[in-house]
Amino acid sequence: MKIVVIGGTGLIGSKLVAKLREHGHEAIPASPNTGVNTITGEGLAEALKGAAVVVDVSNSPSWEDAAVMKFFETSTRNLLTQETAAGVGHHVALSVVGTDRMLTSGYFRAKLAQEDLIKGSSIPYSIVHATQFFEFAKGIADVSTTGNTVRLPHVLFQPMAAEDVASAVGKVATGTPVNGTVEVGGPERFRLDDFIREALAAMKDPREVIADPQATYYGVKMSERTLIPDDGAKLGTTRFADWLKQPGAKLVAAAH
Ligand SMILES: NC(=O)c1ccc[n+]([C@@H]2O[C@H](COP(=O)([O-])OP(=O)(O)OC[C@H]3O[C@@H](n4cnc5c(N)ncnc54)[C@H](OP(=O)(O)O)[C@@H]3O)[C@@H](O)[C@H]2O)c1
Q1: Nearest to 144 by CA among 219, 75, 69
Q2: Which residue lies with its CA nearest to atom 18 of ligand 1?
Q3: Which of 46, 90, 151, 236 would bridge 215 by S-S if both were Cys, CB 3.0 to 4.6 A apart?
């Protein structure tokens, strides 16, 4: 099956392309780095020729409110138009658990706009809502740091390895469209402050993490269950302590 992976050079996309190829699919990474740009339309029609499935795991280069909205709206509109022309039978997109509970953030308003465009199109679709990736613990700490102190709310948190996200997206992409949303999360539940404390300790990062009920997550006020999936979510298998021991484990300064 020809599967085009928009954002196929990114953290999730590159893992997804490798997994799809392992399973014998013709997986095509499509991104500016491979000559395909969903904003300008460059290379898009050519890349989609003969594709059965398109998976969108791209991300906006800027998370400023107006820029991120423009990115996801323009990109998704262009994709859906070109997919209709190419006769693509399944559009899969990766989004975030709790997106509709975090709409005080411009980033999540943009992800919701992306989801609404997909739901409103005539192409069969599956939206995968994933929890936060282990890889972004440092990024979360960085946006929550003042001086040497990280302030985070003591809310439930169920992060997962990017590898498990890619596996889950791959399964959905090679299955029947659900015309709805499936949730995936990590195998363990933490408290957000505890998880970041453990991650920083593993990195020998000297910052102190304080549980602060007034603190926000990327500017969003959290309640106990904002970030966690409902019962029935599919769970990844990689535990955080085991992931930290993997040679490829990398904590990067980015998130969303
Ligand atoms: N952070 C979290 O914890 C979390 C949780 C759940 C879901 N998500 C979602 O996961 C998705 C993927 O995130 P990620 O971290 O894997 O992303 P990433 O590593 O930042 O990769 C972004 C990808 O988007 C591509 N891209 C940028 N502009 C493009 C354009 N104009 N046309 C086509 N492709 C373009 C990039 O291509 P180049 O390499 O060519 O620049 C790159 O391949 C995002 O949609 C995010 O919302 C994140």
Answers
A1: 219
A2: 10
A3: 151
Residue 194 Cα to ligand 1 midpoint, Å, equals 27
Q: What does the alpha-carbon distance between residue 147 and residue 36 come to, in Å, rounded to a whole number?
A: 41
pTM of the full structure: 0.97
Q: Decide whether any atom of ligand 1 lies within 6 Å of the 11 Cβ.
A: yes
Is the Cβ atom of 9 under 6 angstroms away from ligand 1?
A: yes
Intra-chain end-to-end CA distance of the chain, in Å: 29
Residue identifier of the C-alpha nearest atom 45 of ligand 1 = 59
Partner residues linked to 53 by β-bridges: 3, 90
SS3 content of the chain, % helix, strand, coil (to 5): 40, 20, 40
Per the structure block, which two tokens stand in for 132? 């936060």
Q: Is the CB of 6 under 6 A from ligand 1?
A: yes
pLDDT tens sequence across 182-237? 999 999 999 999 999 999 999 999 999 999 999 999 999 999 999 999 999 999 99
pLDDT value, residue 253: 58
